[in-house]
Amino acid sequence: MASDALEFAHLHVHSDYSILDGACKIPRLLDRVEELGQEAAALTDHGVMSGAVQLYREANKRGITPVVGLEAYLVPDRNERPARENRAHLTLLAETTQGYYNLIKLCSKGFLEGYHRKPRIDYGLMERHADGIICLSGCLSGYTCSALQNDDVVRARHELDHMVQIFGKDDVYVEVQHAGLDIQGPINAHLARLAAEAGLATVATCDAHYPCREDAEPHEALLAIQTRDVLSNPNRFKFDTQEFYLKSGAEMLEALPDFGEAIGRSVEIARRCAGLELPLNEFQLPTFPVPQGQTPNQYLEQLARDGLMRRYGATPPADAEQRLRFELDVIEEMGFSSYFLIVWDYIRWARENGVAVGPGRGSAAGSLVSYTLRITDLDPM
């Protein structure tokens, strides 16, 4: 295996949802990556992308390629709310900036449209947001591996075919892992055969929930806290081995001696993802839809002047007129007109639909524009 080979790190770090599933902060993860001399690191939290920006920033500072991803919860139909969930894990990586945006959409829709105990997505969502994404077939909890554990080769083959239809053959890899679990050996052999039959490449990944082997015991304590259990309970939920740490290339080859090419292929995927650029220093405020023929600045001024007369009468005081002009000029110069319109819109909707809103707070609570728009009810004059 090449000395610069990368093993993907399926870490659950800074995750809003699985915050007690991974015992690793991103700086320590990158310390470990540097220690091992690896060139890239992937972050695939369960169901969320909370650590993506931090990984991107800190990895780039160190000259490490950040591979931003998501270990999605996949279900056949996100609209169903079954008593027993048929939920699987699927590894999705952002190859391009468009892929990153699509991962964000999948992540958000998993919460807004598919939430049932977990943020879930389905095949239909993936079909609509597949551009720029590399798909790995998943760990033992994925549909492909689950089918193989039930000796259902036909279903496993069908699942891989389905992923190819969604993402394209060049963007689907059959994922093999070995964290010391007895079942992984025969499953990996099945996966290799399926990959060969389908003409798909295999990739070896490292399912790392903590950076080093010695972190296994603290990780057990985290799992006990997550499940509201105690370490003294022999029947508590815990991992079956202490192998879920970020391994070196030599350790990966020892764990997967028949998959040297698959181990090296992780470098290929990382380099495919190296072109990801996140526009972190750009202003990302949406443009508020305004009446035809008007700009957000013009529409905001119209609403503010109408509100000024409602607040102060048909002939507002000169100092109020002067202050309104000053504030509108500042808002326009800063590019904040859409921001004020967005806040005005949802506060207006809340008032019209019986949702209680306070008299005003926040950075613009003393603004006359806020007062004229009824965002606040505190007269700044």
Describe this structure in words.
The chain contains 14 helices and 7 strands. By secondary structure, the chain is an alpha/beta fold. Strands 1, 2, 3, 4, 5, 6 and 7 form a 7-stranded mixed beta sheet that branches. α11 (296-312) runs antiparallel to α12 (318-334).
Quick overview:
With 381 residues, this protein is of the alpha/beta class. It is built from 14 helices and seven strands.
Low-confidence stretches: 1-18
Radius of gyration: 26 Å
Report the average pLDDT across residues. 90
What is the molecular shape?
elongated
Number of helices: 14
The sequence of SSEs as H and E is HEHEEHEHEHHEHEHHHHHHH
Question: Could you give the topology of this structure?
Answer:
Layout: H1 26-36, E1 40-43, H2 52-61, E2 65-74, E3 88-94, H3 97-112, E4 120-121, H4 123-128, E5 133-136, H5 143-149, H6 153-167, E6 172-176, H7 184-198, E7 201-204, H8 216-226, H9 249-255, H10 260-272, H11 296-312, H12 318-334, H13 337-352, H14 368-372
Parallel strand pairs: 1-2, 2-4, 5-6, 6-7
Antiparallel strand pairs: 2-3, 3-5
Name the features.
381 residues; alpha/beta; seven-stranded mixed beta sheet; 14 helices; disordered N terminus
